[in-house]
Design goal:
Elements: E1 5-16, E2 19-27, H1 29-32, H2 37-46, E3 54-57, H3 58-65, E4 84-94, E5 103-115, E6 120-133, E7 149-166, E8 169-185, H4 188-192, E9 195-197, E10 203-204, E11 207-208, E12 220-237, E13 240-257, E14 264-267, H5 278-283, E15 285-293, E16 303-304, E17 314-331, E18 336-346, E19 351-352, E20 359-362, H6 369-374, E21 377-380, E22 397-406, E23 413-423, H7 429-432, E24 442-450, E25 466-467, E26 473-476, E27 484-497, E28 500-519, H8 525-530, E29 552-572, E30 580-593, H9 603-607, E31 624-625, E32 632-641, H10 651-656, E33 660-662, E34 665-668
Parallel strand pairs: 9-14, 26-29
Antiparallel strand pairs: 1-5, 2-4, 3-4, 5-6, 6-7, 7-8, 8-12, 10-11, 12-13, 13-17, 14-15, 15-24, 16-25, 17-18, 17-19, 18-22, 20-21, 22-23, 23-27, 27-28, 28-29, 29-30, 30-31, 30-32, 32-33, 32-34
């Protein structure tokens, strides 16, 4: 076994403890006596007692909520001004206060190598990782019974064999398995309690008014298993360095996601556009009540029996991907090297192990997309017109070419360039969220109903057969395309002195068919887009493209982006043998897109409280500088190695020689922002474009 077997092991443990002080306002017991009986019952059942830092009377709370008003009204009409109304609570939560997110974790790595002969070698690796984050790290509230933490239990194993047939032919193959098991944890009450909320503008000087619940969907988590096989062959033939390979990937996601398992109760305002929700405290009326039920095979408009039950929140989704590639590094001349190759990749369509649990919204047969949405319906995937969740996408061929040219044949001046194409598999929670579609799952949204202390509300009682109301949908376009990015670059590099180079580099990228999420069935879309009769007084006649369902959150591929940049680079190592090195880069770049992130995470900037585009059927309205655009950036990173005692072999030399001093210094321009207006929109927070420029807006059209 000598000189044949090599074994290595390592472990790392990490313990982080960090707290942050957070503030929230809580309704006082005195003001609770004025609330609607249903609200009082909710707070009695799920509330808890607190130590208050200070208390505001009703008059003081009104003044604090509207400091610009010289003659403010009390916060709660009908409650005496002197009544204690809101109390401030200071509480600690386990958060990153400078030392990292609180956790206890460890990982263990084992590696083994075995040489069967001078031509064949085996290697293997095993990694395990454990992490525990206390309740409050994932979601927190002053009502600590509802805090959410997380646990993670991961494994990874890899084994491979490398065989050398000759000096010019080598093959390598390996098989890998990984299991990522992330789960959120909380007390049982957090799973069974509805979430009661005020509106978005219900705050006092920026401090929220809190109620029991966090709005975090529980249960959440479960293992993701992946098995991957790779085989690569390297062959050197004269001036060519050839490489071929293939890959097969199987992913199995066994996840639970309790979307609306905890009913969301949004308290109603007094008038349209009131986003405080304060009036709902006293009327007991909810603006919206959203919960998940099991339709038991029914679709909206059909009858269901009561009491209703909650749906199955677990799914086991599978994906089958594969890829093949070939490339060549060709030494064309002593001055020119060319690299070229092609990769073909197939991304499999998501499917459940019980395929009747898969359902999606499919277009109808109308003329044009709008009419197809109107005529569309939901099917279980095997019974749909295409017999699966969405059509597979082929044609994902990725050519790449690059070159390096020694311009003067002296090794001091080079020109490099390249062009390539890449693709991205579908990702994110939207594809998983088709779990929320009937007939196995229904998200019910009711308006103007009473506050309830149960997750199913009135549907949880025996009230006889009822009609399943309109439900929201999570939809993946049945003809969704695979996003493509084309990228290109050109660089000129010059050695101006020993160990010192300067370079001018240009690069660009063009993204097409990028993933997006948008509501394609907004309220009023039927009137505006298909000419339904006028909505009339109080907008009572607002219609949707598809009347059977409410909002349809669609994952499509209409995103579009451009990026171009020029970079000036300077690099020196051991300048004039002083030990000083330095890298400096100045970049000018510009990003243009119509949607800067698939999930609209940057809504406060580019999306303006909007899910997706301003107009989901004309993304070009939103074309402009992207949220991630940083026009100019300068980065300098010096590094200095001390020159003394380098040749000293004594203890002093071992301790004091070759110390390095370094740093990174960055200067950059700011990112862009977008005008938006989220007022007077019935509290839905969908953007209403009201900014009127002095000149017409250029509209972009593309396919």
């Amino acid at each position: 076994m000598k000189d044949k077997l090599f074994v290595a092991a390592g472990t790392e443990c990490l313990r982080v403890r960090s707290d942050a002080n957070v503030q929230a306002y809580i309704l006082t017991p005195q003001v609770q006596s004025y609330l609607a009986p249903t609200v009082q019952s909710f707070l009695t059942q799920y509330g808890q007692t607190f130590a208050f830092a200070n208390t505001l009377t009703n008059a003081q709370a009104g003044a604090a909520s509207n400091p610009s008003n010289s003659n403010p009204s009390p916060l709660f009409p009908g409650v005496p001004s002197s009544t204690p109304a809101l109390s401030l609570v200071n509480y600690n939560v386990p958060q990153d206060a400078g030392g990292g997110v609180p956790e206890s974790s460890y990982n263990v790595t084992l590696r083994g190598d075995y040489n069967f002969s001078n031509k064949t070698a085996w290697f293997g690796r095993y990694i395990t990782y454990r992490q525990s984050q206390p309740p409050g790290t994932t979601a927190y509230t002053p009502y600590s019974n509802y805090d959410v933490g997380a646990t993670q239990r991961d494994y990874s194993a890899l084994a491979g064999v490398t065989h050398t047939f000759s000096a010019s032919l080598v093959t390598n193959g390996h098989v890998a398995f990984s299991r990522i098991n992330l789960n959120n944890n909380s007390k049982p009450i957090a799973v069974t309690t509805p979430d009661l909320f005020l509106g978005a503008s219900a705050n006092i000087g920026g401090v929220n008014v809190a109620f029991p619940g966090t709005g975090f969907s529980l249960p959440y988590g479960g293992p993701q298993n992946a098995i991957q096989w790779n085989q690569d062959v390297n062959w050197i033939k004269k001036a060519h360095s050839l490489q071929f390979g293939s890959q097969v990937l199987y992913i199995q996601e066994n996840r639970s996601f309790g979307a609306y398992a905890q009913a969301t109760e949004q308290l109603a305002g007094s008038v349209t556009g009131d986003t405080t929700g304060y009036p709902g405290l006293f009327s007991g009326v909810l603006g919206t009540f959203s919960t998940a039920i099991n339709p038991e095979g029914a679709y909206p408009g059909q009858m269901i029996t009561t009491p209703a039950t909650q749906p199955n929140f677990a799914r086991s989704d599978r994906f089958h991907d594969w890829a093949v590639y070939g490339q060549d590094g060709w030494r064309a001349t002593s001055k020119l090297t060319v690299n070229y190759g092609v990769r073909y990749e197939y991304f499999g369509v998501q499917h459940n192990n019980k395929q009747n649990l898969d359902s999606n919204f499919y277009w109808g047969l109308g003329a044009g997309l709008l009419q197809q949405i109107r005529d569309g319906t939901v099917y279980m995937a095997p019974q749909s017109p295409i017999h699966e969740l969405w059509k597979p996408s082929y044609g994902t061929v990725s050519p790449r070419v690059g070159f390096a040219f020694d311009l003067l044949a002296n090794g001091r001046t080079s020109v490099r360039g390249g062009y390539g194409v890449s693709y991205e598999r579908n990702f994110g929670n939207v594809t998983y969220n088709v779990i929320q579609n009937p007939p196995n799952y229904g998200v019910i949204v009711q308006n103007k109903v009473q506050v309830t202390s149960t997750n199913l509300g009135a549907l949880g009682n025996s009230i006889g057969p009822v009609t399943l109301p309109s439900t929201s949908l999570r939809n993946v376009s049945q003809n969704i395309r695979t996003p493509q990015t084309q990228f290109w670059s050109l660089a000129v590099e010059q050695q101006v002195a020993q160990n010192t180079i300067v370079a001018v580099e240009y690069l660009g990228a063009r993204g097409t068919h990028l993933y997006d999420i948008k509501n394609i069935n907004g309220l009023g879309s039927g009137n505006y887009l298909l000419g339904d009769p006028d909505a009339g007084a109080n907008y009572a006649g607002l219609t949707r493209l598809n009347a059977t369902y409410s909002n349809i959150n669609n994952r499509g591929s209409s995103g579009d982006s451009y990026y171009e940049a020029t970079n000036l680079r300077f690099k020196t190592v051991d300048l004039h043998r002083t030990g000083l090195g330095m890298t400096a880069n100045y970049t000018w770049g510009h990003q243009i897109d119509d949607l800067s992130s698939t999930l609209s995470e940057t809504y406060a900037n580019g999306n303006g409280f909007n899910l997706g585009y301003t107009n989901p059927f004309d993304p070009g309205y939103d074309r402009g500088t992207g949220d991630l655009d940083v026009r100019q950036r300068f980065v300098i990173a010096p590094i200095y190695e001390t020159p003394w005692l380098k040749s000293d072999r004594r203890l002093a030399g071992q301790v004091l020689a070759s110390w390095e001093i370094t740093g990174i210094y960055t200067a950059r321009t700011g990112s862009s922002f977008t005008y938006y207006d989220s007022t007077n929109n019935d509290g839905t927070f969908f953007n209403v474009a009201r900014y009127v420029p002095s000149t017409p807006i250029s509209r972009w059209k593309y396919t």
